[in-house]
Amino acid sequence: MSLIKRSRNRRRLRSVLRRGHLSVALVAVVLASLSLTLLGILALKVYADHNLHLIARAINYTVEAAVVFDDKTAASEALAMIASTEAVAEAKIYNVEGELLAYWRRPESGFLSRVEMLLANGLLEQPISVPIEHQGKQVGAVIVSGHGANVLRFLLSGLFGVIVCTALSAWSALYLSRRLLNGITGPLHKLAEVAHAARSERAFNRRVPSAQIAEMDSLGNDFNALLDELESWQSHLKSENQALAHKASHDSLTNLPNRAYFAARLARTLRSTNPANDKVAVLFLDSDRFKNINDTYGHAAGDAVLVAVATRVRAQLREDDVVARFGGDEFAILLAPLYHVEDAQRIADKIIVSMQEPVELPGHINIVTSLSIGIAVYPEHGATPDLLLCAADAAMYQAKRLARGGQHLAESEYSPTPLLPGA
Amino acid sequence: MDVAVSSTEQRFGGWLRCLSLCLLLFSTPCLAQPDASVNLADQRAKAVTQVVLGILSYARWPAEPAQLELCVIGPTEYTDDLLKGTTQSSGRPVHVTRLLANNPAIATACHAVYLGKLSTEERTYVFDILAGQAVLSISEEVSQCTVGSLFCLNVRDDQVAFEVNLDSVARSGVRIHPSVLQLSRRRVAQP
Q1: Residue B109 belongs to a domain
Q2: Residue B23 placed within a domain
Q3: How large is the ipTM?
Q4: Cα torsion angle, A36, A38, A40, A43, sign
Q5: What are the alphabetically sorted keywords of the record (chain B) (predicted)?
Q6: Catalytic pick from A329, A343, A349, A393?
């Protein structure tokens, strides 16, 4: 339960890296732009203060004569002329007695000008007061407060710049991280794919392609080497298994299937055969003089005879027919499919004939051997593998009794009698 | 050219205004009338003094005198305050003397003349003497400006205005600060 939860909480490498890149880029941009904006505001404040003083001084020079002559109209006109073209929100001119001579105020234009005023009041040291002097003596004062249109414009453009820079850096961070990621996750993905295929499908033949990053490449190479070892081990194991399986089901001398293999094959054939249409023949073969050869010429000669017999029998059969060595000098043949009983008898005759040629033994000795063959046909002589084999065995003894080196077909339904030991 | 000078609030403006307001409130109109006229004359005299001193402060003579000699010539209406003598804001004292119109010393003893009501002969005599001299002339009457005076006062109820005769200014050799001329131009352009 907790394992599932943990794996759900686990994030992908791609998202981890991307989030890391993004946050680094955003933090850098925000910090840089914040510090730049702060510096800019500081510089702007200095310049705005200076500008306001310059405006005040310009007003001062212009209205000086008007103040000396106490001319309200002239003062108002001069004040309006300057203040209307500069960043002035409100300006007042007093004479030396403190009487208001002229007053100018920028017309309010809605919300924006209120924001500008708030900004200017917050940022600038205003209103500023500059004395009007004439011949070294103060004759009045100019009081000016600026409006923050420039500051507002700077802040808005700064904000816009921050947003644009943030978007740009986010985009470039994502772009770069994607490029970086393709270099990292691409090989990792391939590696994971190959590992998964090797684990689930035993596909040890697949290899991890080379990567551009050195660590990834060496990881892939090591993995490939591991796969090489696994593959060779696997193929070795397989061939060993095959050899063992072959050994278990075959006779090592003649390389023919053994009794167990034959029994299994017979049972399978009988299961898949329809008794109404098809027939299956089982032939039981026994060498007539094998014990004599063994005793006379030695076991090596016996083995040579057995190999020769096996080769000759095999040569008489179709590809799908099975010939097995049951042990000693006993062989069995499975003929399937079989269409006529006579076909089985003809094959038996051919085998007997093929034995007439002498077998060359080591030491340039030629001997002639013969086989006695018992034939049992399914379903006439037995419905089960055991019954068929017994019927064929009995028929073979019958043949041996009648004439050595002949063949005999089992008679009618086989009645089970105790099996006699091999000849 | 007119330069208006408000006369409502001057050096004693604060308490004066208070007083006049009290008088206006608590006295009958017939009682208030002479007081008001007395105050008005006083205010005008002060306003005239301010304008004259203002003009003097914006004027430059070829040789700057250590003490400015202002001569009042002929019968005048608003010089009561001026005649007390004063000091410019630069610290230079202004010495005010009354002279007769036929006094030949006008050309040498005065840096500036304040002309009152003069007959045509007297005026001609004075301007003849002053011709070619660096003397700043201020007339109390508006009409005088066309005849040769540099500045002419136009004393009205609420303010004292003045005009400038630029030709006379150019001829006199006394330099007048552009601010004053600019005020004049403004007045001309906006009659």
Answers
A1: yes
A2: no
A3: 0.70
A4: negative
A5: Signal
A6: A329
Considering only A88-92, A316-320, B37-41, which range has the smallest mean pLDDT?
A: B37-41
Q: For chain B, how many structural domains are there in total? A: 1
Half-sphere exposure of A364 (CA within 13 A, CB side): 0
Strand blocks (E) in A136-261: 137-146
For residues A338-376, one letter each, b for 16 or more C-beta atoms within 10 angstroms of the residue's C-beta and e for the rest, the string is beeeeebbebbeebbebbeeebebeeeeebebbbbbbbb
pTM recorded for the entire structure = 0.55
Count of CB contacts below 8 A, A vs B? Answer: 55
pLDDT tier at B185, thresholds 50, 70, 90: low
Which residues form the domain of B65?
49-189
Active site residue A329: yes
Cβ of B154 under 8 Å from any chain A Cβ? no
Structural element, H or E, at residue A282: strand A279-287
Helix ranges (DSSP H) in A97-148: 111-123
pLDDT tens-digit profile of A350-388?
888 888 888 887 777 888 888 889 999 888 888 888 888
Whether B1 contacts chain A with CB within 8 A: no
Within 8 A by CB and 6+ apart from A254, the residues are A306, A307, A310, A325
Our measurement of the distance from residue A247's CA atom to the centroid of its chain's CA atoms, rounded to an integer in Å, reads: 40
Q: Do B89 and A139 touch (CB under 8 A)?
A: yes
> Which two tokens mark A249?
């089901």
